[in-house]
Amino acid sequence: MTFDVAGPARQRLIKLLEERLAEGADKELVDNRIWELFGETWSVMFTDLVGFSRRVAEFGIIHFLQTIHESHRLFTPCVEDCDGHILKSEGDSLLVLFRSPEKAVACAVAMQRACKAYNVGRAEEEQVLLCLGIGHGRVLKLGDHDVFGAEVNAASKLGEDKAKAGEILVTGSVREQLTKLYRFESLDYAPPGADSAFKLIYTL
Questions:
Q1: For residues 36-58, average pLDDT
Q2: Using CA of residue 173, residue 175, residue 180, residue 182, what is the dihedral sign?
Q3: What is the per-residue pLDDT for 5?
Q4: Which of 7, 54, 101, 151 has its CA 20 to 30 Å from the CA of residue 197?
Q5: Rounded Cα gap, residues 133 and 131, in angstroms
Q6: pTM to 2 decimals?
C-alpha cells in the first residue's frame, strides 16, 4: 500500500498507522480511532472494458485512447444521473462511489444500456463492451483520493477479473438490500472480502 503524502487525510492516517506499529501499542484503540475518522458506508463500483488489452495489441495506442474517451463520454452522464462520484479513472477502469446500492445498480444498468445503444451498427473493434462489479459496506475513505475495505476489494475482483461482457456482478451485501427490486443468480465463486457473490438479472 502506498500513499501520496500530500493531503491531510493521508498524513493523519499515516501517523495513526505509525502509532499502531509502535511497541506496546493498543492496536484495537488505534483501529477504532481510524474507523471513527475515516469510516463511511458506500456502494463501490468497479468497471472494466472486455478484451481491452487484446484490442490495444491489435489496433494500437490511438485506438486505446479513442475507446477510453468514448467510454467516459457514455458513462459519465449515467454516473451523474445516479448521484455517483468517480473517484478514480485508471486505464479502461473506473472506481465509482454511490451512497446506496440502489443507485449503484441503477447506474450499472444504465451504463450497460448506453453501451448497447452505442454498439448498434459498429464494427466489433469499435464496440464498448462493459463488465461491472459492485460491493456495499463500511470502508475507509480518504477525502476524494482513496477508499479501502473488504467490499472495495471484492467489487474490484468481480468487475475486473470475473465479470464477462454485459454482466453486473454484486457481493452478497448488495443483494441483501435489493432482493425486493431485482432478481439475482448465485455464483459458485465468492471474492476475497465477501461471503458470496451474485449476477444481476436485468433486461437491456
A1: 84
A2: positive
A3: 42
A4: 54
A5: 7
A6: 0.90
pLDDT digits (tens, 9 = 90+) for 48-73: 998 666 566 676 778 778 888 899 99
Q: Which of 131, 95, 97, 136 is nearest to 112 (CA)?
A: 131
Q: CA–CA distance from 164 to each of 8, 61, 110, 126, 198 (Å)?
A: 39, 23, 17, 18, 13
CB neighbours of 163 closer than 8 A, spacing ≥ 6? 48, 131, 132, 133, 169
% the chain with pLDDT above 70? 93
Q: Which residues pair with 42 in a beta bridge?
A: 137
| DSSP code, position 17 | H
Helix and strand numbers (H, E) in the chain are 7, 8
Q: What is the DSSP string of 135-188?
A: EEEEEEEETTTEEESHHHHHHHHIIIIIPPTT-EEEEHHHHHHHTTT-EEEE-S
Q: How far apart are CA 44 and CA 187, in angstroms?
A: 19
